[in-house]
């Protein structure tokens, strides 16, 4: 896409505000879910922050759709953006995109490709794990026969799910909790594959370079 296009300019102007909005959304949602003893007014404020930030995400999505000039093709070419619009707990992952954009504005990224993949995947795991733990806890802790009854249980479950270990000592029992579980399993496999592939490629590159250094001159 042309760097001077209206859509590119819009994305550059909204990178930081939307990243801040994503963190505000996650913070307000966390307080709303975890702080059961908050006064009703405070819970209403958290809910208002959630709705206002989500409205900002919706406006950004509609503006980018309009500026793209792609019509219905925009939805096919931006499937992930559409999914995230309806699953706003994924929005904090914009921090990864923001970090990359800031690095590039100062020239070439400071970290090599393999290190960046591992860094982004690690940050994504932390944000996704915390968001997933919140969502599953909200769906499960009051359900009949639930095994996830505290936020600590939910964090333990999220960690074992993203690590693709799945001990099975705590499991979701509600349809919403199981839907979130399937999504987190898929994300865990994808992130694990990205880190493993990047690390393997880095090792192959190191061994290849060492092999070249050991060759006799002129060979």
Automatic annotation (TrEMBL):
GO terms for molecular function: voltage-gated potassium channel activity. Keywords: Ion channel, Ion transport, Membrane, Transmembrane, Transmembrane helix, Transport. One of its GO terms (cellular component) is voltage-gated potassium channel complex. Pfam families: Ion_trans_2. PANTHER family: POTASSIUM VOLTAGE-GATED CHANNEL PROTEIN SHAB, VOLTAGE-GATED POTASSIUM CHANNEL. GO terms for biological process: action potential. Gene3D superfamilies: 1.10.287.70, 1.20.5.110, Voltage-gated potassium channels. Chain C. This is Potassium channel family protein. The chain crosses the membrane at residues 16-35, 41-63, 113-136, 148-168, 180-204. InterPro entries: K_chnl_dom, VG_K_chnl, Volt_channel_dom_sf. It comes from the Bacteria. Residues 139-204 form the Potassium channel domain. The keyword Membrane applies. Its main location: membrane. It is found in: Membrane.
């Amino acid at each position: 896409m042309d760097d001077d296009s209206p859509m590119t300019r819009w994305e550059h102007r909204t990178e930081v505000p939307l990243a801040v909005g994503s963190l505000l959304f996650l913070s307000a949602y966390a307080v709303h879910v975890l702080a059961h003893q908050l006064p009703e007014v405070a819970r209403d404020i958290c809910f208002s922050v959630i709705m206002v930030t989500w409205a900002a995400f919706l406006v950004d999505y509609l503006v980018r759709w309009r500026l793209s000039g792609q019509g219905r093709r925009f939805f096919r070419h931006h499937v992930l953006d559409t999914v995230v619009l309806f699953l706003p707990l994924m929005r904090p992952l914009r921090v990864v995109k923001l970090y990359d954009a800031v690095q590039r504005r100062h020239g070439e990224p400071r970290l090599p490709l393999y290190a960046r993949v591992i860094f982004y995947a690690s940050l994504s795991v932390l944000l996704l794990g915390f968001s997933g733990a919140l969502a599953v806890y909200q769906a499960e802790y009051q359900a009949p026969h639930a095994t996830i009854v505290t936020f600590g249980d939910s964090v333990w479950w999220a960690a074992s799910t993203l690590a693709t270990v799945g001990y099975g000592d705590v499991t979701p029992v509600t349809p919403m909790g199981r839907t979130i579980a399937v999504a987190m399993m898929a994300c865990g496999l994808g992130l694990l594959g990205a880190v493993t592939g990047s690390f393997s490629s880095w090792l192959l590159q190191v061994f290849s370079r060492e092999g070249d250094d050991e060759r006799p001159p002129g060979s």
